[in-house]
């Protein structure tokens, strides 16, 4: 069963994917969705705008934990699944860390482009979880 929050996260990943692929702002993508009568719920909009607002910090976190990879080398869908999870982990205090990681893995199973996408996502988010306090100190000192 797909919960309403998971559905919102899936939509958020798709909006982030479109923004990344088309090089358009989240607001442009949301506007286009509205034109085609595709309503996005408030949680989806909050997540996508939050990722966009904090993209530099989120990408810095990814760079800190991936080895021998650039962000551009990570498939567009995979990197946006990871971005969404990191946003939740660092900026959505009401969502438990485990929930953010588990949701990202489940979404990776559904949307990931490769069979090993869930393992890849889990590996990156697992590294972040292990060092989350240090990452907060190093990259986001005001948290």
Describe it for me?
This protein is mostly helical and 143 residues long. It has one domain (4-136): N-utilizing Substance Protein B Homolog, Chain A, CATH 1.10.940. 73% of the residues lie in helices and 0% in strands. It has helices spanning 4-22, 26-35, 42-53, 55-65, 76-91, 97-111, 117-130, 132-139. The model has no long low-confidence stretch (mean pLDDT 91).
How many domains in all?
1
Mean pLDDT: 91
CATH superfamily: NusB-like
- Secondary-structure element sequence? HHHHHHHH
How would you characterize the largest beta sheet?
none
Q: Which fold name is given in CATH as the topology?
A: N-utilizing Substance Protein B Homolog, Chain A
Radius of gyration from CA coordinates: 14 Å
Note the beta-strand portion: under 5%
Reconstruct the topology from this structure.
Elements: H1 4-22, H2 26-35, H3 42-53, H4 55-65, H5 76-91, H6 97-111, H7 117-130, H8 132-139
Short description:
With 143 residues, this protein is mainly alpha-helical. The chain has a single domain (4-136), classed as N-utilizing Substance Protein B Homolog, Chain A (Orthogonal Bundle).
Attribute tags:
single chain, 143 residues, mainly alpha, N-utilizing Substance Protein B Homolog, Chain A, 8 helices, globular
